[in-house]
């Protein structure tokens, strides 16, 4: 039979009572500190002899050269983004699908489509086939593009007919198609009201800044001309505004 072990006797810990410091209000009073005495630094007088060698010639100082550090790329994706992407030739079907999505997002013209085909280095023989497919599926329509461009620039950016015409001519749109878009999308009354609103707002701003009436007219005219409006129409509206 195994002998039973006697339980160990644990001696209680002796805890010394903490002595609390008595409150003394003088300990919390602000103490006065004497300011430190600072000795002024004596500047060294300029002596030209210090910058000369023993033989009397001027000392030459070499500029420090710094080594270029090789910055290591921690992220693999950053390193991959630096590498040029390999060119992948698109098929006719792939190019058509990409251009269909390109036209579905916003109205496009022929110039933008041909620019994309040249960017993708497609064969010139495939250009006609892809453009014909886009026309048949109603993704590409130059008349619809001209009307959308005219309506957007006039209603949102408040452009005049001269500026809209210049923008469309840059995209190789015919003059007849531009005139048809002006007739269908811009009404004469709305065109006159838009220009009047722009000039009235500009005139009220110039009243606070410019005292001379002639300079005020000149600045308002230049502002409307930059927007693309006609000079005769601007003069007619400005005369009515200046009288009032």
Which features characterize this protein?
244 residues, 53% helix, mainly alpha, single chain, Arc Repressor Mutant, subunit A
Largest sheet: none
Q: What is the CA-based Rg, rounded?
A: 42 Å
Low-confidence stretches: none
- The gross shape turns out to be extended
Beta fraction: under 5%
Q: Provide a count of the helices.
A: 10
Residues in helices, as a percent range: 40-55%
Task: Give the strand tally.
Answer: 0
Mean pLDDT comes to 85
Span between N and C termini? 125 Å
The run of helices and strands is HHHHHHHHHH
Helices and strands: which structural class? Answer: mainly alpha
What features would you describe in this structure?
The protein is an all-alpha fold. Among the domains are: 49 residues, Winged helix-like DNA-binding domain superfamily/Winged helix DNA-binding domain (Arc Repressor Mutant, subunit A, Orthogonal Bundle); 42 residues, no CATH class; 58 residues. 53% of the residues lie in helices and 0% in strands. It has ten helices and no strands. Helix 8 crosses helix 9 and helix 9 runs antiparallel to helix 10. The longest helix has 22 residues. The relative contact order is 0.06.
Report a brief summary of the structure:
Residues 189-238 form the RecX third three-helical domain. The chain is mainly α and 244 residues long. Helix content is 53%, strand content 0%.
């Amino acid at each position: 039979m195994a002998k039973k072990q006697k339980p160990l006797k644990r001696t209680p810990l002796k805890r010394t009572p903490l002595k609390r410091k008595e409150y003394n209000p003088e300990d919390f009073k602000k103490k006065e500190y004497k300011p430190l005495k600072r000795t002024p630094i004596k500047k060294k007088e300029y002596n030209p002899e210090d910058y000369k060698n023993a033989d009397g010639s001027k000392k030459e100082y070499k500029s420090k050269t710094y080594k270029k550090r090789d910055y290591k790329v921690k992220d693999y994706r950053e390193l991959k983004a630096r590498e040029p992407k390999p060119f992948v030739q698109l098929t006719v079907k792939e190019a058509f699908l990409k251009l269909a999505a390109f036209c579905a997002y916003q109205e496009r013209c022929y110039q933008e489509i041909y620019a994309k085909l040249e960017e993708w280095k497609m064969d010139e023989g495939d250009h006609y086939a892809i453009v014909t497919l886009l026309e048949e599926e109603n993704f590409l329509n130059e008349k619809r593009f001209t009307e959308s461009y005219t309506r957007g620039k006039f209603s949102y950016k408040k452009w005049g007919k001269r500026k809209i015409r210049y923008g469309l001519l840059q995209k190789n749109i015919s003059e007849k198609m531009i005139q048809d878009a002006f007739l269908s999308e811009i009404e004469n009354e709305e065109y006159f009201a838009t220009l009047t609103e722009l000039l009235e707002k500009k005139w009220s701003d110039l009243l606070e800044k410019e005292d001379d009436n002639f300079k005020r007219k000149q600045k308002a005219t230049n502002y409307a001309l930059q927007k693309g409006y006609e000079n005769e129409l601007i003069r007619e509206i400005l005369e009515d505004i200046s009288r009032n």
